[in-house]
Amino acid sequence: MITIAKPIIGEEEINAVVAVLKSGVIAQGERVEEFEEAFAKFIGTKYAVAVNSGTAALHIALLTHGIGAGDEVITSPFTFIATANSILFTGAKPVLVDIQEETFNISPDRIEDKITPRTKAIMPVHLYGQPCDMKRIMKVAEKYGLVIIEDACQAHGAEYEGRKVGSFGTGCFSFYPTKNMTTGEGGMITTNDEDVARKARMLRSHGQRQKYIHETVGYNYRMTDIAAAIGLCQLAKLEEFNNKRMKNAEFLTERLRRIKGLVSPKAEPNVKHVFHQYTVRITEDFTISRNELITRLKKAGIGTAVYYPLPVHRQPLYQNLGYNDCLPNSERAAREVLSLPVHPSLTREDLEKIVCAIQNIG
What we know:
This protein has 12 helices and 15 strands. The chain is of the alpha/beta class. Helix 2 runs parallel beside helix 8 (about 225-255), helix 3 (about 55-65) crosses helix 4 and helix 8 (about 225-255) packs across helix 12.
């Protein structure tokens, strides 16, 4: 079976974990600090704060900017639920802005219409590894004095005009096993603001700067040294992983782009798209339905996934909260998107198999 995702764990990661276990320092030790320093250098920020998930990173990032009850945060409806839920965690309200059809990212043209006196931040999502239009988003944020919190959980190493995502505002990354690099579970907050970094370190560890001196309500969002040891090894391989993803995506696009009813992903010319997912659209002009295509590809030994079958405002939770937005681009994307394998473990034979299976159907 060609799986939709496959983490690559080598001897380096195994040996690094064993070294941590033998050291006796397993949580929030030197490896975590080392990983933070290395990741900040990679992104191009002064600080990085390691936590135990991408969701924790989003939650803490919002709290460090004082976002809470009564506030509003603008974000995308076409994303994993953690993006919007992290806003709910603070007591604030997610305000959803529809996406661009071509990139699946939040549309800068529509943001200003949703700004109110209660708006405190914009949380763009660099979906599938493609950066949002940060120049235009930053222009709106500056005009209204809004904070930018980047959901870069799927975009490790992605770049907008030569600058890595996660460096435009307060960046949030996930290291879940399916991501471009992994720590098993884990997350990272990146920032150039010393105060944000200080608050984030307190919030991840029960609101303390000194042991057992608690200055504020905090959480147990700490990263283990085991995870950090894996992360250091993965970070060293990330550029190689991303290059393979991009080459695999280029191969797939070249071979699939002429199939009627199948729309290949489009990378904007001023960005580095790192293809966390290779996501096509299966439109009504395709020979069979998306569900039937998924079934046939599975029978052929090819894994696929739909990210995401329901946009945020159509989720039962948000329906119960009274969301009834009309966001046609997001709803159409949810009906049409299909992610194909693009991960670095794929061989040329795997890629040919994927292409031939779809061409024979289409």
